[in-house]
Amino acid sequence: MSEVVESVGKLCPICHDDIDYFAYGSCNHPTCTKCVLKLRKFGSADEPEFSQCPTCRQNINRLLPCEFVLMKPADLTKHRSWDKNKKKGHPLCDFCKERFYEMEDLITHIRDLHFLCDLCMTTGKFVVFRQQCELLDHYGESHHLCSECRAQQRISCFATEDRLGLHRFQEHPNEVANDPNSWLPISIRHVTSTDSAFRRRDQIFPDVYSVDGVVGMSYFCLSQ
Question: Where would you find the membrane-spanning parts of this chain (predicted)?
Fold first, then answer.
């Protein structure tokens, strides 16, 4: 610390007054305690024609003293506006009309007070609902909701129909076996022993007759 004090002297680089007690922020810039307090209050009293960002003010502990910037009203409005492409500004909750310091804070707020579609988040979409019933309607319209889990007062939703089918096969095998919508159509034709391409197969299955119908997915183990 003595080397730093000798390099800057005993004058505060902001107010140029003698420094009785040095104050250091995370940026390691020495100032006097009076200026540090002013910086933490954004110094708006000294510049009444300027305004400061209230969202940044709430998160002052995250900012370094050298990051405090005075802004005119027009610049403040631009600063607070959220740019989703550049990831700059302060994101807004459309329901509460409250701005947050960064996107992670907004997501935390939404998870606590609102309902966020995590499946849409994986695709880069930010879809939020005020009530849970709206989220459930969205699951049924845009994704794949398990009806068996819903009947059991549970929520299981999947991004693709294949994942839903795998879930039903593992968790609800009896319902799948009795659900005609989950059955696959099959057609088995008779193969004669004179067909050279199937002679070796006929040694295992000597008599196969033509059958048309459906088979349940949970018992369908033949692939073609």
Answer: none
Beta bridge partners of 215: 184
For residue 37, the one-letter residue type is L
Spell out a b/e string for 104-128, using b for 16 or more CB atoms within 10 Å of the CB, else e.
ebbbebbeeebbbbebbeeeeeeeb
Angstrom distances, CA of residue 211 to CA of 32, 70, 189, 208, 215: 92, 81, 7, 9, 11
- Interior/surface letters 169-196, b for 16+ CB within 10 angstroms, e for the rest: eeebeeebeebeebbeeeeeeebeeeee
Highest mean pLDDT among 25-29, 55-59, 72-76, 159-163: 159-163
Q: What is the DSSP letter of 19?
A: P
CA-CA-CA-CA torsion sign (212, 218, 223, 224) = positive
129 pLDDT band, cuts 50/70/90, is: very high
Average pLDDT over residues 173-198: 64
CA distance 49 to 47: 6
Q: Select from 187, 168, 186 the least CA-distant residue to 177.
A: 168
| Residue appearing with tokens 């509460």 | 96
Mean pLDDT of the chain: 71
pLDDT above 60 (res 14): yes
**97 vs 45: CA distance, rounded Å:** 28
- Beta bridge partners, 187, equal 212
- Residue 34's CB: how many other CB atoms inside 10 A? 16
Residues 6+ apart with CB under 8 A from 204: none
